[in-house]
Design goal:
Chain lengths: 183, 564
Amino acid sequence: MNAYLRPALSLVLLMTLLTGALYPLAVTGIAQLVFPTQANGSLVRDEQGQVRGSALIAQAFTGDAWFHSRPSAGAYATVASAASNLSPGNPALAERVKGDAAQLYQAQLGPVPLALLTTSGSGLDPHLPPEAVAYQIPRVAAARNLPPARLQGLLEQATLHPLIGPPVVNVLALNQALARLSD
Amino acid sequence: MHSYDIALLLAFFAIVLLPAPWLGRFYYNVMEGQRTWLTPVLGPVERACYRLAGVSPGHEQGWRHYALALLAFNLAGFVLLFGVLLLQGHLPLNPQHLPGQEWSLALNTAVSFVTNTNWQAYSGEASVSYLSQMLGLTVQNFVSAATGLAVLVALCRGIARRTSATLGNFWVDLTRATLYGLLPLCLVLALLLVWQGVPQTFTDYVHALTLQGAEQVIPLGPAASQIAIKQLGTNGGGFFGVNSAHPFENPTALSNLLEVGAIILIPVALVFTFGHYVKDLRQSRAILACMLALFLIGGATALWSEHQPNLALQSSQVQQTAPLEGKESRFGVTGSVLWTATTTAASNGSVNAMHDSLNPLTGMVAMINMMVGEVIFGGVGAGLYGMLLFVLIAVFLAGLMIGRTPEYLGKKLQAREVQLLVATLLVMPVGVLVLGAIAASLPGPAAAISNPGPHGFSQLLYAYTSGAANNGSAFAGFGANTVFHNLMIALAMLIGRFGYILPVLALAGSLAAKRSAAQGLNSFPTHGPLFTGLLLLTILLVGGLTFLPTLALGPVAEHLSQVY
């Protein structure tokens, strides 16, 4: 029995030391040196140094004067993140989507983009597709007394076009740019 | 399909297929103890491990000793992880002061990570401390994958060797698989992920004041190092609760490509490793062709299905495009479906979109990928030894058809081998159908479902399929964290893991002991399109047909009820 016990126990402990302690410590050391911003959560700070969020984590934006984030099944809770897990045929999904659509619908803009009506997988999706931002421009422009064309320009500047993924807009970055525009 | 969708698919196949021949040879060299370019750095560490553990690396084991060593190691790992999860409240590196896990949850979690399943009945950021993530979960991510790799090379040796009483040394195989096979790749991937935005820190969660003045807690942790091995080791257990849908776990389209490619990078390469063992790369190409064909059939079906709008949302006020519920904007539909097909084909089980909200036929492809026994690439090591079982079954069926004693690469398949093969065929039906049926027929456990209609049944079916297949993904609305499901799914995971490993090792031992007959004109060739086709049919008929009635009750019924 000892022929198995000693190697089993020692190798579990040795592998714990190597892969559970030394490996994450090595990654942390290099990451903190080379990519300190990302390694610490891509935090966004204001002029006073106060943390205003993370570039990667959605915030709840309410009211007419801000671009709203993707809806969140967990009310933008970060601990713990959550999804709706509604099946496509669940009546609760159709009820929620159609209810929200009735509120957001503007005849001159056409049907409401699906990204504004569906919750994301994480509940913390920091992005929106550009057309879902464009749908909000008339509302934000009216609330801020800004010409829609300026917001359209803002949107075009903020749109990211990855080679291997759909175009997206970071809503927090867009709203920060919006706040600067109003100042 | 947009141009970026096509670019994503091309890039995906390029990063998993192009390095495979080179990487496959590297794994052969590593597992056979040959010198590689990493030896100057890792050689001294390796030798120190053997010295401290009292292992003589030159000493080979027969299949029984090899299996006992494997079981002892897995048991020791289980006990340590179970203990850490129960006691994390009293242990250091717990800045959130999280309490220990409830016993059935801790048991389920420990079994889940030891068996390379990584089923998660908990949410990482809310119930697992930094210490548990690192010393507990990350370690099992490494060594469970290394265990799979060890079993695979034992089987390869069994097929390749002649009149040999031994299969290698488990301790050596495990150590070399971890040190050379997994650690260096993980280090590279972890740093690439940090570059893309995945956190890697030991500081406390950060409190932020949002633009509109609300308080927001930002969870952090040593995430990148764990996510790298979670993908490369076909583990799939997320650092955060929503897994790779979380923007910290998978921040960009590029990180998505790296993570989804990492799922099958090693499993694809190992197909070539097998070719080096048997000194015939044509065998590798035949097997790889079959895996690719199955992957493409399922993947194309899922892509088509998921690009169909959800008819339940039809309204003049709602844009009628491909469903986005449970999907992240930065991945889009194609990036999500590619992940779904890959993670279920490869027993990884991580998700970047919520499978519960997928269209019914997309969810069905995910289930079929698992039901055939995780052999379409499959887990690290586990996928290929599962596939080799199907190869032997196909050879046996071909032998029956042409009326000769079946043989594979010169090894005759006789009564004992066929008995062992049949034993492995029972694993998935027992794990999914028997345990699933018990759960479905008891009122308490069946209450865990959260969606109405046939989809509710699919949730339960998916849970037990995922457990038995050692996948770990879920229709996550399923309320799995009850004592009943924690214990039953733990049982399904154990059956699904060791129900294969033990017969595979016995088979390896039995094949290794045989003489190798010269391959004459009479033997059925196991390379070329004819054999690939036979293998594909064997997998679908023997592996898949068993589950057809359950699929009819779940996703097929759900699809039909939506369309009509």
